[in-house]
Design a protein that fits this description.
Elements: E1 9-13, H1 16-29, E2 31-36, H2 44-49, E3 55-58, H3 65-74, E4 78-82, H4 89-102, E5 106-109, H5 116-126, E6 130-140, H6 147-163, E7 168-175, E8 183-190, E9 193-200, E10 202-214, E11 219-223, H7 229-244, H8 253-268
Helix pairs in contact: 1-7, 3-4, 4-8, 6-8
């Protein structure tokens, strides 16, 4: 029962619809002390100064991730940052260095990696000889931030989780509809196969799938679900990592590795 278990004390920096879901997830697995936005009351700096908060979850605009995470780590808090960890590799490495020095948990919120259906699909993929991987994400929205940092980052994280760092990266196509880029397609080359990612955020219908084709002619499909299960699992594993000083798949250097892959994508498109 809850009152017989040592509970980690957590808090949230960030509000909105997603912030509400995160707050619910944290409250289910920890002693949730409340939330603060970037503006208004209470101020997020005040929340970080509280002695009864051991760990914080940062769900704010991407441009603020580094500065808030930096302050949280400096205040001795364990930190989960919504993807991506920061805007640059340099910033992310600084955060990792501080977390390592202070022996704090620092993780990046790549929620699809916590989906139990994805994990079962991943196990099947790892047991087979892969011929090709096709990632496809169609939706309408998420225009506030770049398609690369807001959506593509999930596919890069999945590729790293499955196969590690690719041998080569190619930029296939980018298109502008409502913003600078609303459609992007890239290729990640591994030994013997390529991972293709296509994302369209101006599509009429929503669908997010990954298909693995195997050398024997069979295939396996993962389909993203409208479920809060992955978020609740993510919250539980973050709190458990804080409690037991464990390393998560998305801890520390993983966030840096994703941003390094982002740099290679930008270079592939001549940026």
């Amino acid at each position: 029962m809850r009152n017989c278990t040592i509970m980690i004390e957590t808090a949230l920096i960030g509000r909105g619809r997603w912030g509400g879901r995160v707050a619910q997830a944290l409250a289910s697995v920890s002693e949730f002390k409340g939330s603060a936005g970037r503006t208004g009351e209470p101020q997020w700096e005040t929340l970080l100064s509280r002695q009864d908060v051991q760990a914080v979850w940062i769900a704010t605009p991407i441009a603020t991730h580094y500065s808030i995470a930096l302050r949280a780590l400096q205040m001795g808090k364990h930190v989960m940052v919504e993807k991506p960890l920061a805007e640059t590799v340099y910033e992310a490495k600084e955060l990792v260095d501080i977390a390592n020095q202070k022996k704090l948990v620092l993780a990046t919120g790549y929620v699809f990696l916590f989906d139990p259906v994805y994990r079962a699909w991943k196990k099947k993929v790892k047991e087979r000889t892969v011929a090709a991987i096709k990632m496809s994400w169609n939706k309408f929205g998420s225009f506030e931030e770049s398609i690369e940092m807001n959506l593509l980052t999930h596919h890069l994280a999945i590729a790293l989780d499955l196969f590690g760092t690719p041998n080569a990266v190619r930029g296939i196509r980018k298109e502008s509809v409502q913003t600078e880029c609303d459609y992007i397609s890239i290729g990640l080359s591994y030994d013997g196969f390529e991972v293709i990612s296509e994302i369209n955020r101006t599509a009429a219908q929503h669908e997010h799938t990954i298909t693995a084709d195997f050398s024997d002619g069979t295939s396996a499909l993962w389909r993203a679900r409208a479920s809060q299960d992955p978020l609740f699992i993510e919250a539980a594993e973050f709190v458990d990592a804080v409690k037991k000083n464990k390393v998560l798949t998305v801890s520390n250097e993983f966030g840096v590795d994703v941003l390094m892959l982002h740099e290679r994508v930008a270079k592939a498109f001549g940026r």
